[in-house]
Design a protein that fits this description.
5 helices, 15% strand, two-stranded antiparallel sheet, alpha/beta, globular
C-alpha cells in the first residue's frame, strides 16, 4: 500500500514539475488543484486556505516539500511545514529543479525550506528543523535521470521519514 503524503510546493513556479512527481504514483498525494480551483479557495481568504490545508493533511503520514528555486520562505509552504510538524507528521524535502517544465526548462536549486524553523525555545539547545528533516537532491543534471532517481527512491524516502519521526 502506498504511503499517503501531502505535497507542499510553490504552485506558480513548480506546478508542472510537481505533476510529474505526483504522476509517478509511487506515493499517494492529495489532488493538485488547477489554478482556477486554487483561485476559488483563495477567494475565501486565509481561513479558507487554512481549512483546505487542514483537510488535505488529514490522513497523511508525511509532508513532502517539493523544493524549487523559490519554495523556501513562501507563506503557505511555511504554514504547511509548521502544521504538519506540529501534528506529528513525518517530513522530507525533494529538490525538483532538475525536472523540466512544459517549456523544456529546468530551474535553479532552491534553499532548504526547513532551515527557516527551529525546534525548542532555548537558544542554547534549539536545533534547526533542517538538521532533523532529510532533503534529497538528485545527483543528475539530465531531467530524465532526475525523474528516474526520484521515481526509484521517493517511496523509500517517505518510509524512512515516517520511521524517523
Amino acid at each position: 500500500m502506498a504511503r499517503r503524503v501531502f505535497y507542499s510546493f510553490h504552485y506558480d513556479n513548480d506546478n508542472q514539475r510537481v505533476q510529474q512527481v505526483k504522476n509517478m504514483g509511487v506515493v499517494e498525494g492529495q489532488p493538485i488543484l488547477s489554478s482556477n480551483t486554487w483561485e476559488e479557495v483563495t477567494r475565501g481568504g486565509e481561513a479558507a486556505i487554512k481549512q483546505y490545508i487542514a483537510n488535505e493533511l488529514k490522513g497523511k503520514s508525511c509532508l513532502v516539500v517539493l523544493i524549487g528555486s523559490s519554495t523556501a520562505g513562501r507563506k503557505w509552504v511555511k504554514y504547511e511545514i509548521e502544521q504538519a510538524w506540529n501534528a506529528g507528521k513525518a517530513a522530507l524535502g525533494v529538490h525538483v529543479h532538475g525536472l523540466k517544465d512544459l517549456a523544456g526548462k529546468q530551474s535553479t536549486k532552491g534553499k532548504n525550506p526547513f532551515a527557516d524553523f527551529s525546534i525548542g525555545s532555548n537558544p542554547l539547545t534549539s536545533r534547526s528543523l533542517a538538521s532533523l528533516v532529510s532533503t534529497y537532491d538528485p545527483p543528475y543534471s539530465d531531467s530524465k535521470s532526475v525523474y528516474a532517481y526520484i521515481n526509484k527512491n521517493l517511496a523509500a524516502w517517505v518510509d524512512a521519514a515516517v520511521q524517523a519521526r
